[in-house]
Amino acid sequence: MTLLVSDDRRVRTLTLDRPEALNAFNEELYDATAEALLAAAQDPTVAVVMLTGAGRAFSAGTDLLEMHQLATNPDFPRGKHGFIGLVDALVDFPKPLVVAVNGLGLGIGATILGFADLGFMSDDARLKCPFTSLGVAPEAASSYLFPALVGRQHAAWALLSSEWISAAEAREMGLVKEVCAPDELMATARRHAEVLAAKPISSLVAVKRTMTEPHRDAIRAARDRENAAFAELMGGPANLEALAAFAEGREPDFTRLS
Questions:
Q1: What is the 3-state secondary structure (H, E, C) of 59-75?
Q2: What is the pLDDT of residues 36-68, one digit of tens each?
Q3: Per-residue pLDDT tens digits for 2-22
Q4: How far apart are the C-alpha atoms of 168 and 180, rounded to whole Å?
Q5: Burial of 212 (0-12, 13-18, 19+ CB in 10 A)
Q6: What is the C-alpha separation between 185 and 182, in angstroms, rounded?
Q7: Which of 39, 21, 22 lies closest to 31, judged by CA?
Q8: Is the whole model's pTM more than 0.85, yes or no?
Q9: Please, which contacts does 148-156 make with residues 24 or more away whose CB atoms are closer than 8 Å?
Q10: Predicted confidence (pLDDT) per residue in 166-212, tens digit
């Protein structure tokens, strides 16, 4: 089992549960999370979904060992939904989504905050959008959502530099609503989730729809541009050098690559 699901007071908590892999998303976890969001969207007993991670990480992003297999082995089995299906489920999720970042978040572990209606972060957590260090393109419509959330220069630094972003910086930028002590994170996130969950679901859905609908076409267009760029770069020289360096435990060398 890669995803834990629990219900309490109309809040469904999804806990990424691959702690030995820092909750990195493999095809199985992408599928499980997408299915859970699709199910919660249709469940009349669920008003709010809260997403967090088990162990010391929120999510280390895409499982790079599996990514290497996907990039080099055309016969490697893919999931039903995969990364693209999870992003589609996030784009279409009609109810409030609360994200509690309990530890490090890389890649989709950071860009998923673009879809959070409320984000909370442990003060010892960190975020990284490692796309340029992997020789690939942005993902999860972050090329649109991040500038909209935090402004162009903050977004450009996050997406271009592959540098770590501290919890304090994430709060200052506007990626999360609050930063909490580690032992207060879940209680704080749950308290906010329960305030929302006590409201009529029909009203929650209507409010979220009126907030997101004006951006829906732009989000989908950004996702499509990113997917095309990602597909073009994945398996290319820079990406293969980055993945090989990861597998070999060394720093990548891009100096001879364009």
A1: ECCECHHHHHHHHHCCC
A2: 999 999 999 999 999 999 999 999 999 977 776
A3: 999 999 999 999 999 999 999
A4: 10
A5: middle
A6: 5
A7: 39
A8: yes
A9: 148/215, 149/113, 149/114, 149/173, 149/174, 149/175, 150/174, 150/175
A10: 999 999 999 999 999 999 999 999 999 999 999 999 999 999 999 99
User: Which tokens go with 168?
Assistant: 């304090």
Residue 85 phi, psi (nearest 5) = -65, -35
Record the tokens describing residue 130, joined without a space: 């490692």
